[in-house]
Amino acid sequence: MVPVDKEGFIQLRELEKLIRKDTILVSIMHANGEVGTIQNISEIAKVVKNSGAIFHTDAIASTGAIPVNVKELGVDALSIAGNQFYGPKGSGALWLRSGLRLIPLMDGGIQEGGRRPGTEDIAAIVGMGKAAELATKNMKERIEKLSGLRDALIKGILGKIDHVVLTGNSSQRIPHHASFCVEFIEGESMLMMLNLNGIAVSSGSACTSKALKASHVLLAMGISHELAQGSLLCTISLDTTENDIDYVVETFPPIVDRLRQMSPLYAKYIKEKKG
To answer: Left (φ > 0), alpha (ψ -120 to 50) or beta: where does 204 sit?
Structure first.
């Protein structure tokens, strides 16, 4: 794994050190779905290509949210998922640079250009294509709306609640994404309390939502195990309104206060502060 800094950015010098003469593939997320940070993929691509390795980027969190151009990024391969931009769930695509050959993981037919056997899901493919068309057409307006709501949410939560850390970069992040670590309480407790108030959020990544342990992403960014347990991820949709953001900002602080009153970690903090 390549080390990252406190905002989740890849450290290019460390990447250069890790690439060996026998390295054939480097794969790095374009944007991290847990902390929202957008990597400087074009700069990373230069480092990888100088080594002769193939460079793949996971653009699932970024495609449909921000402009994604394979030529500008300089990648050899790029993967996307349709559900991220309102396409059918379960649909996805892998773009490959012309001339790049892959050995199929499964034996069988020659569908998908000989790369993956099995009958293509035509309905999902067409649905994802239409969703991509709509996302591209309305992207500028979508970015302006969602980034404005995101910034209002971040400002409101950080302004009303003490001991909260914004995770990821404050500006170079996907426009619909806000993530935090709330000190002294656990993410699962916040999720349940917010859900009772009609607010749907998550703690950690979707891939590890069933695992009750600290996020490896946050730990890699240097966040302590205790603080990482209080992670909270908020995503904003096209249907989200300013009133929704105001509701979250007003509803969340009393929940945090209530949970902290039951937290032994917070009691210890108060005791040490007074002492």
So the answer is: left
